[in-house]
């Protein structure tokens, strides 16, 4: 009986260490996003800036489309994904000097904001909505790392 209790205590210890490691990993990622870059603002500061600047540009149809597109994201991470993607969509709209966020801007920003591994879900959702992805193939061909630093230069080079 004593050996079983010893093993349970050891397993419990490994479980706690593993869970704390996972939690620490996500906290560290959040910490890195709050670190200021060369311009003095962090990634999260820029996300907030673009959200605030583009808040008035959203129509109800685009909000509903965004909600539909992020529906494959697990519920636990959906708010974070929505914020990151919406801020990138706002950034694209502002850089193009658009008055309103259109479906085209939304899809382009969504592709830019998501990693390559999530593009298959996006393609599937767009196919369900009968939206042609042909005009956006150039964005699908690039990975997210190509966008993060100089996405505007990459965008100009593909056009």
From TrEMBL:
Q: Which UniProt keywords apply?
A: Membrane, Transmembrane, Transmembrane helix
Q: Which residues cross the membrane?
A: 6-28
Is Transmembrane included in the keywords of this UniProt record? yes
Q: Name one Pfam family in it.
A: DUF2621
Database matches in InterPro entries: YneK (IPR020203)
What is this protein identified as? DUF2621 domain-containing protein
Q: Which organism is it from?
A: Virgibacillus profundi
């Amino acid at each position: 009986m004593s050996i079983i209790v010893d093993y349970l205590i050891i397993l419990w210890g490994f479980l706690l260490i593993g869970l704390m490691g996972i939690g620490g990993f996500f906290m560290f990622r959040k910490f890195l996003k709050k670190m200021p870059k060369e311009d003095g603002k962090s990634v999260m500061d820029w996300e907030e800036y673009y959200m605030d600047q583009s808040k008035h540009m959203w129509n109800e149809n685009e909000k509903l489309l965004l909600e539909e597109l992020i529906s494959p994201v697990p519920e636990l991470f959906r708010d974070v994904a929505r914020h990151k993607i919406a801020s990138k969509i706002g950034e694209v709209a502002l850089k193009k000097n658009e008055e309103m966020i259109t479906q085209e801007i939304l899809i382009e920003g969504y592709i830019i904001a998501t990693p390559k591994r999530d593009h298959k879900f996006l393609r599937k959702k767009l196919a369900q909505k009968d939206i042609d992805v042909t005009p956006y193939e150039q964005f699908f061909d690039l990975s997210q790392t190509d966008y993060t630093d100089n996405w505007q230069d990459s965008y100009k080079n593909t056009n």
